[in-house]
Each structure stands twice: as structure tokens, then as C-alpha cells.
Write a structure and sequence with these properties.
alpha+beta, 3-stranded antiparallel sheet, 2 helices
């Protein structure tokens, strides 16, 4: 048994709209919250009885473009003023906790 995310919304006409967030096309309107949940559960069970959910790996290729901000990475590494500012920020954060 899997858990599914159901969005329940009260409509202006007094109905409850139930939407399965993983399957936006599965949506039910009912007079009651319980009725909407039950109907959406039944519809989801019916759909999944004929379906299979699998996980597949997808390789994400790094982009060939370098982030333009990376040219600034580490430029203050040896700057004593920057180190002092960072130490003050750290001390303030520790004091506020």
C-alpha cells in the first residue's frame, strides 16, 4: 500500500474538490470531504490496477558552460579585512542562537 498526496479544496458552491497531486488528471468533486476522498481513492485504485510504477535512472550531463560567477570564487581568500568581517558575522550568528 502506497500513500498518495491528495489536495482537498473547498469550492465556492460548497463542494470539495480532491486532486491527486501525483496524477493531476485524477480529480473528483463531492458534497463532502469524506465522499471526495473515498471517490478519489476508488478512482486511483482502478487506474493503478492496470498500471505499473517503475523508477528509471536518468544521467544528467553537466553543462559545458561554466557558471559566470565562479570566476569570483575565492577572490577574498587571502584578504584580512574579509576574514575579519566573516568572523564578526559568525560571532553575531552564534550570539543570536
Amino acid at each position: 500500500m502506497d500513500n498518495w498526496n491528495i489536495l482537498l479544496e473547498n469550492t465556492n458552491d460548497g463542494f470539495t474538490l480532491a486532486t491527486v497531486l501525483e496524477f493531476r488528471d485524477i480529480q473528483i468533486r463531492d458534497k463532502t470531504k469524506q465522499g471526495a476522498v473515498k471517490k478519489v481513492q476508488q478512482l486511483l485504485q482502478k487506474r493503478l490496477a492496470k498500471a505499473e510504477i517503475i523508477k528509471i535512472p536518468v544521467a544528467i550531463e553537466p553543462t559545458s558552460e561554466e557558471n559566470p560567477l565562479m570566476k569570483f570564487a575565492g577572490i577574498f581568500e587571502d584578504d584580512p579585512d574579509f576574514q575579519e568581517i566573516m568572523a564578526e558575522i559568525k560571532a553575531e550568528r552564534e550570539d543570536s542562537n
